[in-house]
Amino acid sequence: MIPEFCYHITLIYNKYGNNIREYIGHYTQLPEGWTVVPMQMLCSLIDGDKQNGIERINLDVKYLRGKRNAKTLTSGKYIVANSLLILVDGENSGEVFRTPIDGYQGSTFKQLSINENMNTEYVLQIINLHREILRENKVGSAIPHLNKKLFKAIDVPIPPYKEQQRIVEAINKFFISLDLIMKSL
Questions:
Q1: Residue 171: enclosing H or E segment and its boundaries?
Q2: How high is the pLDDT of residue 1?
């Protein structure tokens, strides 16, 4: 049942994009315990704490993608290991990275702080569903930026926490199966 649900959620997002309420409005009621809230109620975009005089790795896009060796800085916005950074400047705005180590936040990032009552992986799946919309709706002329107003307004269907966990597990199983299929081609 959960893979079927995930499939239907994907279809809903593909058709209605950022306005899932338009689709959910066709139902007389949501499943028990579900609600829909804007992304801004679930997470915020913040900066790390400013530090000076301590040498740390610069957590920039090329380093986080493994395309460049670590460069160090002696000041910056401090980010602890395992934090989430969202790309807010450039072509791939909306892409999320998990920091492998402590370091200084790259200039094209904001730290993504997710409400502790939410399943982090569930919220990341919702953001990932919207990456194309976020990428296509950047603001700014010289350097495109993440449309933060659009990001904050994304409607997020919120099931109970245990259901969030089951949905994430089903999505992960689906991607494992998809990887196996792709390898066999």
A1: helix 161-184
A2: 47
